[in-house]
Design goal:
351 residues; Rossmann fold; 2 domains; eight-stranded mixed beta sheet; 12 helices
Length: 351
Amino acid sequence: MNSTPITNTTLIGCGGMARFHMSYILRDFPNTHFPVLCEPSGAMYLEMVKVFEDAGRPAPPNEPDLQRLLAEYGLQLDAAFILTPHAYHHDQASACLEAGLDVLLEKPMVMTVAEAESLIATRDRTGCALVVAFQGGLSTNLQAALAMLCSGQLGRVLNISGLIWQNWDPLSAGSWRQVPELSGGGFFFDTGAHLLNTVSELAQEPFSEVAAWLDNQGRLVDISGVVMGRLRSGALVTLNACGATSPSCASEIRVLGTDGMLRIGAWGEFLEVQYDEKDGWLAVEVPAFRSAWEQFLLVREGQVPNPSPPEVGLRMAYLWDAIRASSAQNGAPVAPAGWIRPALAQGTGTF
């Protein structure tokens, strides 16, 4: 990526996930510069300073107030990467877009349907790029899977089944991830958001009804959950999320068609297909993996269409609202309020 134009970026949030992303950005993208960071916690900022030092790059100053940062540094910046608690995503992304910055926004995009619609409107009004950092949506494996489904290689889709698990509860206990006002949900809305998004991508159509059960297991947010749904075509969907199992973090999604089946990870980390049991599962060859930051740069440079636009956040908000509403009624079926086809840009795919 040495040939990419220089991009002056602010990083908003310096927690563990931000430090993970920053470690490879500083290593692989020397033309991405960081004039300033935005982190209200002095301790978290000092942890990020270590990441810069380990990469042999000088640590930028910290401006903990985003509005002051944009006022002082806005004209020096091209982009923002936002990795903060979910409740802050809408206002922070809106402020950056209004300041003329392209934005890479950590998942889940927002907390509510209204916030998703607001961000899409701001994206349209400002003309800035807004990419949601769903690894599944950005993965070449998922793009290949969608091409197979659209071409009819698996025949008519009958069932989609997804499972995701992690020892999330002990890992997140005592953190903002288990504070409903900041997180908007528990395991199913955090790690499980990858499952919700990737299954929605594979479905390629609206849910006509959803039945769900969420179990808080004594916490303030959901720790495990099960969702059953029917798509508009009649295809059946099951989603199973467990956030209190043994140390691990993994997933598997299967799409069963009349002529074959595929399996893929919620993060798009693998893709296999099977047409006959005697042949077993066959790995699908796909183009090389591209990191979230590389794809964001390609989108803002106009080299590729946005593979994960804010429409995915609106689609997920519709689904999550239905899941919570059904769970509150002990699994009574609920029809999602709406749906949007993310591949249709500028919000033209509403059903």
